[in-house]
Amino acid sequence: MPQIKESSSPAEKERERWDEETLKPTLAKVAERKQSFQTVSLADVNRLYSPADIQDLDFDKDISFPGEFPYTRGIHPTGYRGKLWTMRQFAGFSTPEETNARFKYLLAQGQTGLSVAYDLPTLMGYDADSPLSEGEVGKCGVAVSSLSDMEVLFSGIPLEEVTVSQTINAPASVLLAMYLVVAGKQRASWEKISGTLQNDILKEYIAQKEWIYPIKPAMKLVVDTFEFCTERVPRYNPVSVSGYHIREAGATAVQELAFTLRDGIEYVAWGVEAGLDVDRFVPRISFFFNAHNDFFEEIAKYRAARRIWAREMKSRFGSNQPRTLQMRFHTQTAGVSLTVQQPLNNIVRVAIQALAGVLGGTQSLHTDAYDEALALPTDRAALIALRTQQIIAEETGVVNTIDPLGGSYYLESLTEKMEQEALDYFRKIDAMGGMVAAIEKGFPQREIQDSAYQYQKAVERGEQVIVGVNKYTMTDEPAEVPILVIDESVRDHQVERLEQTRTRRDKGGVANALDKLRLAAQRKENTMPATIEAVSAYATLGEICSALRDVYGIYEEPAF
Amino acid sequence: MSQRKIRVLVAKPGLDGHDRGAKVIARALRDAGMEVIYTGLRQTPEMIAAAALQEDVDAVGVSILSGAHNTLCPRIIELLKEKGLNDCLVLVGGIVPQEDLPKLKEAGVAEVFLPGTSTEDIVSFLRQNVKPRE
After folding, report:
1. pLDDT value of residue A3
2. A38 DSSP β-pair partners
3. Which residues pair with A286 in a beta bridge?
4. Is residue A335 over pLDDT 90?
5. Residue of A10, A119, A113 lying closest to A493 (CA atoms)
6. Under DSSP, is residue A541 helix (H, G, I), strand (E, B) or coil?
7. Residue of A nearest to B37 (CA)
8. Closest alpha carbon to A170 in A230, A214, A229
9. Does residue B1 carry a pLDDT above 50?
10. Best to test chain B binding among A136, A473, A491 (most B CBs inside 10 Å)
């Protein structure tokens, strides 16, 4: 008989008794299927969780009630009984005309918010006619080179009523300016419009790598948008601190959690340093997480994220305002988990991932289309993705009660473990001098690369199973699914509009506006007013980014 | 006289920054005993061909996820040929629709590896297809 420790609690003693009396005889007869069981992040999972695993948690302090500190169970006292999450499908491809039509189609199908995907030239601050844009115009998103494109993109969509999320980072302040000018032309009030700018440049250096300027001036541009929106567009979220791309680049769930929240803390610190009042701008910071395959690990991640944010905003910045402490987030299912093989299987993966996002209390959700490992989604695939959310919302009953998995021994224990592991990362990053310094050292980049490699090895050893890829494979795949093809005529169309815009505009006005912008950047003034002026004069995205490059220079990634 | 190690240039052309695949492949090839040079992001076809020549590589692995493969891959192959690198294999990894595969093969791509490919398959492809040199 093993010795039962003197200090064992009744819960631990009960657990030990079960091990001895019930478990061991079974294990003696039949071994388990595997030596160890792991999450998709390669974290070990115990055989069983029982009261002994959560005995150190204090209900009031650690779990509490929805709408109350530390918000582990959600930020709304009524959960989804009050308001469902926003069904916000990320869409954008080809020309602004085509994407505008897709937006209208999605709204007609019951979607409740828009989310714009821009193409790579736009993401990198190049116009459609730049030589670097060759082969890329309209491929991964919609092409926007000037205000003329933005006017077409939102034509007939009332921006005072629909909230729009824009996935744009390095040139985010320019696209925000275009959006505000289009809203103004629609006579929508800046006081009333709402929406989200991704504008999370830190995760670009860490994971997605669509950068233009060096880190510090890029952070200054982010802070400019905080300042501007706080004063002029008070209901707009100027940043969506994103773990999504960090996870897609290969991070574990804990790394996604830790790096994203530490990025969030970095933005708050920079805002405070610039003289902003925490309780005025932090309530408009939103977050964006991945929903990957490991169901409970994901739900625990969202719950831990809320708890960490609330505690950090209180301890680091001294806030006591609920809106500052409450972390709001968007979720997208894991593109990286989708397979080319047997693509209809992806519908099932997406449904389960989306369910994790909902059980984790997300404020908005994008469900991937089943054909996204092949190309951008077709109308049919995009519709099934939206219907998946509607089925979860209307048919499964998971929305009827708040945080239905709260109190689960496994989930609470995992939430606590992930919080502690994230805090370990915070200590390391703080010791390096903060997130900007850690990125300059290549720390998060190396951690993620290493995890990506370990995961690939685990897949190749067959320890991580991907149905249809390394198990249950088929030599004769079922019929291929139709895919969306973007042809090169998109570029011609876009270049043509760009040429018309360049001919029509007042050239002197453009040059003046660009000079003003350079001057504002040199003097370290807020660049938003000059950016809005340049955009209004129909200066192109490429011209504006080029003016800022003149002042700030460009980022060169060191070899990590 | 020992056979020289297989030398591979892992290249990331175009504007896309998603380098997870390129970096995993680079590390897997290194672990398999090959010499790997990674170009870094946003290389033009001209830069890739110049690096292939300078590094005297046996193969160029091109990672593309953005849909720009039909424009970029034929251009890279053309430039390699211009530089006399006729034996240099060009492999493509990334998101490539089935219907584009014949076009790429015709343009001279040795093999296209789609999502879900095991790194071991890529290693053995290189071992079987790189022409031995001393």
Report:
1. 56
2. A44
3. A240
4. yes
5. A119
6. helix
7. A559
8. A214
9. no
10. A136
Number of Cβ within 10 Å of residue B37's Cβ equals 17
In order of A13, B81, B92, the CA distances from B100 in angstroms are 63, 22, 12
Residues in chain B: 134
Domain total of chain A: 1
Check: CB of residue A221 under 8 Å from CB of residue B30. no
Our CA dihedral for B7, B13, B17, B22, rounded to 10 degrees, sits at: -20
Distance to chain B for A376, nearest Cα, Å: 9
Overall size of chain A counted in residues:
560
| Whether A486 and B67 lie within 8 Å, measured CB to CB | yes
A549: in domain: no
Residues of A in contact with B24 (CB under 8 A): 250, 452-453, 456
Cα gap B14→B66, rounded to integer Å: 8
- What is the domain extent for residue A262? 77-398+405-455
Q: How far is the first Cα of chain B from the last one, in angstroms, to the nearest whole number?
A: 8
Displacement of CA A349 from its chain's centroid (Å): 18
A455, A42 Cβ separation under 8 angstroms = yes
CB contact under 8 A, A250 and B16: no
- Do residues A344 and A481 lie in contact, with contact meaning Cβ atoms separated by under 8 Å? yes
Written as one string, the DSSP assignment of A491-527 is: HHHHHHHHHHHHHHS-HHHHHHHHHHHHHHHHTT--S
**Shortest CA gap B92–chain A (Å):** 15
Q: Which residues in chain B have Cβ-Cβ distances shorter than 8 Å to A342? A: none
Domains of chain B: 7-127 (3.40.50.280)
Domain presence at residue A35:
no
Inform me whether the C-beta atom of residue A473 falls under 8 Å from chain B C-beta atoms. Answer: no
Distance in angstroms (rounded) separating the CA atoms of residues A137 and A495 = 10
Q: Which residue of chain A is at minimal alpha-carbon distance from B22?
A: A449
Residue B43: strand pairing partners: B13
Q: Mean pLDDT across the stretch A181-208?
A: 97
pLDDT for position B98: 86
CATH number, domain with residue A233: 3.20.20.240
Å between B4 CA and nearest CA of chain A: 26
Whole-prediction pTM: 0.95
Touching check for A446 and chain B: CB below 8 Å?
no
Interface of A with B in 371-430 (CB under 8 A): 373-376
| Amino acid identity at A450 | D
**A42 lies within 8 A of chain B by CB:** no
- Judge contact between B51 and B43, C-beta under 8 A: yes
Token pair for B9: 């240039």
Domain membership flag for residue A472: no
- Give residue B134's pLDDT band: very low, low, confident or very high (50, 70, 90): low
Q: What is the mean pLDDT of residues A338-346?
A: 94
The pLDDT tens digits of the residues spanning B68-118 come to 899 899 999 999 999 999 999 999 999 898 889 999 999 999 999 999 899
pLDDT given at position A479: 66
| pLDDT at residue number A488 | 81
Give a yes or no: residue A43 inside a domain: no
Sign of dihedral through CA atoms A11, A16, A21, A26? positive
Q: What is the pLDDT of residues A74-114, one digit of tens each?
A: 999 999 999 999 998 888 889 999 999 999 998 998 888 89
Amino acid present at A266: E
User: Does residue A451 sit in helix, strand or coil?
Assistant: helix
Q: Which of B41, B71, B120 sits opposite A460 (nearest CB)?
A: B120
Cβ separation of A248 and B20 shorter than 8 Å?
yes
